[in-house]
Amino acid sequence: MEHTEETRRMELPNTETMRRSPSKLELTFIESPPRDFMKDFKVVFDLSIIKEITLGRSPENMVIIPDPTVSRKHAVITMVGNELLIKDLNSTNGTYVLDGDTFKKVSEYRFSGDVVIRLGYYTVIKLSIITEEKQ
Question: How many CB atoms are closer than 10 A to CB 33?
Answer without folding.
Answer: 17
